[in-house]
Amino acid sequence: MTPPQKKQRTNDPPPSHQSTEMDPAVARRLLVEGATVVLLGVPAGTQVGVDVTSWNVGEQFMGVKMIPPGLHFVYYSAVNVTDRSTAPRTGFFHNFGRGEMVVRRWDQSIEDVVDDVADEDKVKMKQDIKNIDKHLGVYPYHSWKKWISLSNHVSDATLLRLEPRTKKICSVADLVPDEAGSVPDQPPSGDTDPRLPAMSARPGTSITYTSLVTSKYPEGSTPAEITRHSLDGTFQLSAFVGSLEKLYGDQVSTSMSDQDSVREVLAEIQFAFLCFLVGTNYDSFEQWKKLVVMMCSCDDGLVKYQGLFLDFITVLFFQMKEVPSDFFVDIVSSDNFLSSSLNSLFSTVKNSPEVNQQLKEKAKKFEANVTKKFGWDFSAELTEDGPVVVENSDE
Questions:
Q1: How far apart are CA 140 and CA 46, in angstroms?
Q2: pTM for the full model?
Q3: pLDDT for 348-362, tens place per residue?
Q4: Which of the residues 86, 291, 342, 385 has the least number of beta carbons within 10 Å of its own beta carbon?
Q5: DSSP conformation letters of 348-360
C-alpha cells in the first residue's frame, strides 16, 4: 500500500525563487524570530520539504528560512535527474527555537543528510547569514495553520518517546539479517521462501510506538464481562493510557514526567498520521489505524474520557481534510475500516444517554462533514462485525 503524497511539481523552481504572499508585519517578525534550516551540498533536483510542502530544489539552494518557532518535519529524497526516479523519503522532526539555525550536510555516498557539521562552522554560518540568505527559500507560511492543526498535540516528550534512536523517519525499513533467525512480531508466512535469510529492521531505526493490549477484556472476566468488553474498547483504551502513565511516571526528565498521559493518546495519533502522510511510513499507517479503531469502539470511555473524545473528533476532522475523498476506498476496498469505525462511534454517541450534549453535537457535525466529503452513509444500522457473545456453560 502506498500512502498519500502531496502532488510533486518536478518543474517548480526551488523555494528561493517562489513568490510568497505574507503579511508584511508577519514577514518582519519572522525575519527576526523565524528559524532556519541549512542543508549543505544538496544536489540540484533533490526533493526537499518542510511540513506539508515540498520542492525539487535548484543548484543555489542551501535551505529554508523564516520557519515559525515550534515543531516541524524536514524531509528529502534523492532524485535521478536522468529518469526522474525518486528515492525513498527520509526526514526528521525538530522543535525549532526562536531564531535557531539548524545545519545539516548532504552525504553523497549514502544519499542522506548527516549531522556532522562542526559547531565552529555553524557559528560562522550564522555570522555570515546575510550572504547565505539569498540561497534560502522562504517557509510556506500559508500552510502553517494546516500544519499546526495536524501536530498541535505532539510535544518534545512525544518525540523522545516515539522517535527512533537515529532520529530519522524513513519510508522504507533499513533491513539487516536477523541474527535470531526470525523477524520479530511477524508470523511465519506460507509465501516465505526458506532459502531467503530472515531480515529485521536495523536496531535503532524503528519508531517505538506504544503497543495495544491484544485482549479486549481483563484476565479473569466472567462470560458476561467478556461479552460487555468485546462490545466496548474502553478496556483497551484504559490499558493504553495506563502504559503511558507508567512510562512517564518512571521518567526523571521533567519534559516526560509532567506529561498528561491521556492527551498523549492524541499525540501518538497525530505523530503516526504525520509519519504516514508526510513521511510515507507504512508502519505508521498501521499504528494510526489501530488507534482510530480502538477509539471508535469505545462506549464507557466516551463518558470516562469525555475531554479526550472531544479533542479526538477535532484531530480526526483535520486529518480527514488531508486525504482525497477516494483514498480509503482505494487502499482498503475489501474492508473500509474507517467507515465502519466511524459508523460505530457515531451510533454509540447518538444512542448513549450518558454522553453529554457537547460531544453529541460535535459528533453530529463531524458526521455531516465526513458524509459530504466521502459520501459514506451512516444512517444504516451496523450489521457487520456483530458483537461477540459468550454463553454460560451448562455445567
A1: 18
A2: 0.84
A3: 999 999 999 999 999
A4: 385
A5: HHHH-TTS-HHHH
